Amino acid sequence: MIKLHDLYFKPFISENEIDNAVQRMVDEVVSDVQDEIPVFVGILNGSFMFVSDFVKKYPNPCEVTFIKLASYEGVKSTEDIQRLIGLTQDLTNRVVVILEDIIDSGNTLEEIHRIFKNEKVKKLSIATLFHKPEAYKKDFKLHYVGINIPDKFIVGYGLDYNGLGRNLPKVYQLKTTQYMTNFVLFGPPGAGKGTQANFLKETYNLVHISTGDVFRYNIKNETALGMLAKSYMDKGELVPDEVTIDMLRAEVEKNSDANGFIFDGFPRTNAQAKALDDLMDSKDSQINAMVALEVDDEVLVERLLGRGKTSGRPDDADEKIIRNRIKEYYQKTAILKDYYAAQDKYCGVDGVGSISDITNRLTAVIDKL
Ligand code: IMP
Ligand code: MG
Predict the structure, then answer these.
(1) Which residues make Cβ contacts (< 8 Å) with residue 179, sequence separation at least 6?
(2) How does pLDDT run along the chain (369 residues), one tens digit per residue?
(3) 72 lines ligand 1 (CB under 6 A)
(4) Residue 316 to residues 190, 307, 311: CA-CA distances in angstroms?
(5) How far, in Å, CA of 179 to CA of 127, rounded?
(6) Which of 54, 208, 267, 331 could form a disulfide with 201 if both were Cys (CB 3.0 to 4.6 A apart)?
(7) 128 lines ligand 1 (CB under 6 A)
(8) What residue owns the CA closest to ligand 1's atom 17?
(9) Can you list the domains of the chain with their CATH numbers?
């Protein structure tokens, strides 16, 4: 993922795919042009990189010139095309191939046709490396198209977002879910995870997804996924990751206007962490961090024993059981800590102190995400 100005973009078309598309276009043009010496007309600025690669691959004599037009403001195409540099050479009776980086609405192309209306060229054809068929509103024929893409804003390989991104050798696509902040919340038993999750979801308007709650909800409401999960549980088997992920996907889709999600109780394994990354990726989003409350074992034991005196929870009353739960937590989460640390997303937060102290430490971390 990359950030240009205020927006995030994800990798979309590799250098290799671009290279293959350019080569294919060159081959098609070569076979159509035959013995003529074509004039390639690049449309600046966006096409400079495409023109450069295209003509380097072009095996026969050719001429290269440019027109400079401008139509885009930010990430939107405008009707108003400015002619900044027009044709500077006589093209009478020449075979002309327009080289465009991208054809979107077709407004720019219309202007190109206007420019060529009075030129007595022998043949005019249009070659565009990228094309957005869903956005195209004109009838002009496109003779050579490199890669058809969906109607989403892209940058790289000559294309820019407000001036940035033209130098990137591959193409990136605008992420549509820009502003979500999602994190996985971890903490050993007694760390105060539940309390803090409640504060955080209020403060940031996040949706708290606790896998345990999601399971109970789906089973209670007898959803298809709930029944499927229950069928495994009834046999004493673990619910497969796909089923759990499908439930989480449904939760994420239900709350698509959320500012983000706090995942709690999931993932527990490397495979689940990867599946969660894939899920967020398919939603054009991402896990920003694993936020883990770090509390010394002795403090946890003390807290839980204290809680056991009043809560009556049997698993909070026995020191040996408590120590075991803590040990198990560290054994299970160590791999996940490594997983997220490898992506530079592990954020440990000191979980000792008053509730508000800890909340303040957490918000300081989350504000930076
Ligand atoms: P059209 O006039 O709408 O066909 O748009 C053509 C021009 O808009 C291109 O030459 C680009 O300069 C710009 N453009 C269109 N789509 C994109 C995009 O996804 N990223 C960056 N620039 C674009
Ligand atoms: Mg252009």
Answers:
(1) 259
(2) 888 998 889 899 999 999 999 999 999 999 999 999 999 999 999 999 999 999 999 999 999 999 998 776 677 766 677 778 888 899 999 999 999 999 999 999 999 999 999 899 999 999 999 999 999 999 999 999 999 999 999 999 999 999 999 999 999 999 876 678 899 999 988 888 989 999 999 999 899 999 888 999 999 999 999 999 999 989 988 889 999 999 999 999 898 778 899 999 899 889 999 999 999 988 888 899 999 999 999 998 998 888 877 777 666 678 888 898 888 888 888 899 999 999 999 999 999 888 999 999 999 999 888
(3) yes
(4) 9, 7, 8
(5) 36
(6) 208
(7) no
(8) 153
(9) 2-174 (3.40.50.2020), 183-367 (3.40.50.300)
Cα of 180 vs centre of ligand 1, distance in Å, is 27
- Which atom of ligand 1 lies nearest, measured to the CA of 45? 12
CA 19 remoteness from chain centre? 23
Range list of H helices, the chain? 15-33, 48-57, 107-116, 193-204, 211-220, 224-234, 241-254, 270-282, 297-311, 319-342, 355-367
Q: How far is the CA of 264 from the centre of ligand 2 (A)?
A: 46
How far does the centroid of ligand 2 lie from the alpha carbon of residue 106, in Å? 10
Does the beta carbon of 102 lie inside 6 Å of ligand 1?
yes
Q: Is 108 in the pocket of ligand 1 (CB under 6 A)?
A: yes
Token output for 232: 């495994």
Distance of CA 110 from the midpoint of ligand 1 (Å): 13
What CA–CA distance (Å, rounded) separates 342 from 332? 17
What's 76-111 look like in SS3? EEEEEEEEEECCCCCCCCCEEEEEEEEECCCHHHHH
Asked whether the beta carbons of 155 and 9 are under 8 A apart, the reply is yes
Which ligand 1 atom is the nearest neighbour of the CA of 81? Answer: 2
* Centroid of ligand 2 to alpha carbon of 112 (angstroms): 11
- Is the shortest distance between the CB of 107 and ligand 1 below 6 Å? yes
